[in-house]
Description:
With 150 residues, this protein is of the alpha/beta class. It has three helices and eight strands; from the N terminus they run βββαββαβαββ. Strand 4 (55-56) and strand 5 (62-64) form a beta hairpin. The model has no long low-confidence stretch (mean pLDDT 96).
Amino acid sequence: MRTVIQRVSKASVIVDQNQFAKIDCGLLILLGIENEDTHEDIEWLCAKISNLRIFNDENDIMNFSIMDIKGEILLVSQFTLHASTKKGNRPSYIRAARPEIALPLYEQFIMNLELKLGKKIQTGVFGAHMMLDFVNDGPVTICIDSKNRE
Length: 150
């Protein structure tokens, strides 16, 4: 699993010209799922995200997690995070999981993250064409890959 995590002051998802989901201060998380991903990847990533200290404390030091600030999360599925650009100019998405594999893992990810946070998170619409509108705060953007645990 690959994620792009952005600290935002606000974010929303628009589907078919209608606002589907919206958050204020928190995290916009783009999630890419590949065929080899398992429940272990979900557990590890959700724990990492929920404890990631990227929010400022009273001294303006990134010392607080999403749980510390009681922030919101907007999670959006994005298969293009597994694009391979090794050959040619058209990205290959062969590593991205097909919907029949990705959707159940995406749903498990949502449930796991909600359990860790103790509250509901907002999501996009799996497989839909979406427009994202957000203000990256900082900017703070972190990429995490569960197969490359640095």
